[in-house]
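Risk mitigation, structural track. In case the binding assays with adenosine-5'-diphosphate fail to produce interpretable data, a predicted complex structure has been prepared as a fallback.
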Amino acid sequence: LKQSLGDPSLLTDKAFVAGEWVGAGSGPTFPVHNPSTGAKIVDLPDLGFADARRAIDAAEEAQKAWAARTGKERAAVLRKWYDLMIAHADDLAAILTAEMGKPFAEAKGEIMYGASFIEWFAEEAKRVYGDVIPGHQPDKRIVVVKQPVGVVASITPWNFPNAMIARKVGPALAVGCAFVSKPAKQTPLSALAMAVLAERAGVPKGVLSVVTSASSSKIGEEFCSNPKVRKITFTGSTEVGRILMRQSAEQIKKTSMELGGNAPFIVFDDADLDAAVEGAMMSKYRNNGQTCVCANRIYVQAGVYDAFAEKLVAAVNKMKVGDGFEDGVTTGPLIDMAAVEKVEEHIADATGKGAKIATGGKRHALGGTFFEPTVLTGVTPAMAVTQEETFGPVAPLFRFEDEADVIAQANDTIFGLASYFYAKDMGRVWRVAEALEYGIVGINTGIISTEVAPFGGVKQSGTGREGSKYGCDDYLEIKYMCMSI
Ligand code: ADP
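Fallback model:
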């Protein structure tokens, strides 16, 4: 991998703590593997409490001077970081494909997407406006200012090793926070490559650290118990989100939580079926089904059910599974064997209760963690996939008759992140869009992620929003000054 990079220094075996690149020395390490080949890429330092604390101390120290700069100065650094990410997009994508498995073109897409958050928040850095409120008494003047929360600690998952961090570090640094990142142990190399470029862009020592560790619970405990950390920002499962919120409760830390989803994807009988199939393909199979906004339950109205199923199966059969570096590959491996087992369990549970496999259904002939893209028909609410996120390449098709019933089914979940539907009737479009209890509704589209819109969930899918003009709010405190004149 290193030899194939235009800039080999982007691939590192060191962590980035308090402005220093630290090797493992004689300390413990953990390996990072390529999930397509099983080959080890590199060993990284397995850091612990003391290193996390060092990063937090340095962040606290550096944050004050960073916040004291003007928005325009911080914007210039972030803009430079963005430019470097774009200039090195191919290398960043290669590192991402190697550690995570997604096809190179998709990895490149993620790099551009991640970079777009750095660009967006570079722009927003200059626009952290307050307010002037007319006084409540003749001698009173009321001014509202927004200030950075301070030191932010971040924990992110492996499915978007670049973008999940970019969406957090962009707004945090833009408004003057310092940032300590704990990337997923499966995919820390993309985070470290970003840090190499951040340092080059002029992010001051200590403002950004990347703490690599195989024990996320250890680092998580330090993040949540260290009083210098004012905010925890997390993307991952609802289960781990609960743990972090519980741990944060002790010090009433602010939290932003981007948690699990269980996205419904509804196809009404007035939908453009070809467009719906195309949307379902992107929503369901992007990243091999490993995103929190992937369609998890596909509801198709009875009149178009068979036609939709047939078109979807035809599209799925054109997918090419393989190593993400191979030409024409649309779908990489799953992240690990546990992911394969969960997919198998969901398929076995569904078929055991009467669902039929329309295509796929088993491990791929390539072996490893490759899995066949799968479509299930005749899926019913009694099956596990109705309540749990599969996080894999399985499209379960439910049949429904009427609008009110499908809305009730779509909302019958603890989750509320993304939802999708395809319909043409204007009245129906408004009714359904307003009735879905989700933070995001894709209407006649299967792709909803962009830096210009607020991404986030309701119910047990989390709190806070990432991206858009609202994205800075998660990293700001509101202060109101009441002046008597
Ligand atoms: P995923 O299925 O994406 O791995 P998780 O919620 O399990 O979802 O993990 C998301 C991130 O949270 C990963 O970086 C993981 O290492 C981390 N993590 C898992 N358990 C804990 C914990 N108890 N405390 C802090 N972080 C954790």
